[in-house]
Amino acid sequence: MARPRSFDEPHVIRQAREAFHDHGYAATSVEHLTAATGLSRSSLYGAFGDKHGVFLRSFTQYCEDNAEAVEGALAGDERGARGRLERHLRSTIPVPGAPQRGCLLAKATAELAGEDADVVRTATDFYERYERALSACVRSAQTAGDVRADLDPAGAGALLLSVLRGIEALGRAGHPPATLQSLVDTAMAVLATPGH
Asked: What is the mean pLDDT of residues 107-126?
């Protein structure tokens, strides 16, 4: 009979994901993971199998947390839907002078997508949820009359997701916040009904 685990598994996974976020997958050593989690190698691998197993649990948790946050930020009444879309887009623009850690999702897919089907599947699931949340918010804004009725909500959601990922990449590359704000202005202008 297996002994019950004597640690808080979600907390340990969250601590492990911080190590992966800081160092990337390949450069994260067992020593990084044991230091971050407070577990021995045998406890860590006994619970999760190996480094890859620890990473997949961490990456899945990261994507789940972020998907829930996006869905929460975009959900709500129809009259406020357009404002929620704009606030969400603007919230991704980096604050000048703030440390730029980058997104674990972007880092992991850049490093592993060509060789790790589990990472690809988890990332794809996340992006599909993100796109659905954006599309649903567009649809709500259309119902309220605040977004053009002739737009396909699914296509608009895909466009907004592309804008969001572009803002992230350009922000990491050091583009000025004013340039990124103008991207949001342009995206919102594409959605706008006449007179908005």
From this structure: 93
Number of domains in the chain: 1
**Whole domain around residue 63: which residue ranges?**
56-191
3-state secondary structure of 90: helix
Q: Is 37 exposed, middle or buried (0-12, 13-18, 19+ CB in 10 A)?
A: buried
pTM above threshold 0.85: yes
Q: What are the pLDDT digits (tens) for 42-90?
A: 999 899 999 999 999 999 999 999 999 999 999 999 999 999 999 999 9
74, part of any domain: yes
Cβ atoms of residues 85 and 137 within 8 Å: yes
**Buried-state track 88-123, b at ≥16 Cβ within 10 A, e below 16:** bbeebbbeeeeeeeebbbebbbebbeeebeebeebb
- 83 within domain boundaries: yes
How far is 13 from 33, CA to CA, in rounded Å? Answer: 10
Q: How far apart are the C-alpha atoms of 142 and 44, rounded to whole Å?
A: 49
